[in-house]
Specification:
There is one protein chain. The chain is α/β, with parallel strands linked by helices. It contains six helices and eight strands; from the N terminus they run E-H-E-H-H-E-H-E-H-E-E-E-H-E. The strands form two sheets. It has a six-stranded parallel beta sheet, with helices on both faces. Strands 6-7 form a two-stranded parallel sheet. Helix 1 links the parallel strand 1 and strand 2 (about 35-40).
Length: about 270
Amino acid sequence: MEGLSVCSVLLTGCDGGLGLGLLKGLLEQPSPPRHLFAACLDPQGKDARWLGVASHHVLQRLAWDMATSPARPLADVTDPNSIKAAVGKVQEKVGNAGLNLLINNAGTTRRSTLATETAENMTLVYATNTIGPLQTSQAFLPLLKEAAEAEGQRGMSCSRAAIVNVSSILGSIEAAEAWEERQDVCYRCSKAALNMLTKCLALEYGGSGILCVSVDPGCVSPPLGRGTVIWQGPVTVEESVQGVLRLLARLSATSNGTFWDWRGQSLPW
């Protein structure tokens, strides 16, 4: 099967786990992106250092000048100033071609039950999982529109212009999966809200040719946080990445504003 072919991609949450796996998977596509922007909180971290040696001719790594801004992490999705700076760096590289694909992968969780959930947990998790993708999508909209309007582009696809929000089956109100295994109320609510954001983005940006979807990557091993693996059972990073990239390669206009899992199955909101 032909892989995902896209000129420019910005992927948040590349410090490790699924984000780093997606980064590697994109680089290993038959036609890897010309510009692959890896956004991470700690560019000097153990896993993130892989970015510097991955593929110098393909990978355009965003990084702060640590000598002048030692306390400012790259593309912290909870910091509008960090996002604004990242937009500027992407603009420098892509020019008038715009940004084809934004993958909002950065996420966090706090283990909890309904009895132990706190306002602090809810606020922290919402800031990263829901408000972060909102702010990032808003900031990169002009570059996504440029890509959608580029000459020769037609139809809706991840190759043209798209926003992919990495969500979770735990955010599905209809499915309400794995309650006995992990309640994690703040995480569930933040992902349910993210799914609604995906629908809102699809309604507003679809007319501009920008495809917007939510994708559940599965319970990737090691799972996010600690505790019992959810209903799907452990999914390796490699399995999840291969499935997600296959899915992204086949999404079209009929997929706009929908929710999918890594196996290519449609999920209920």
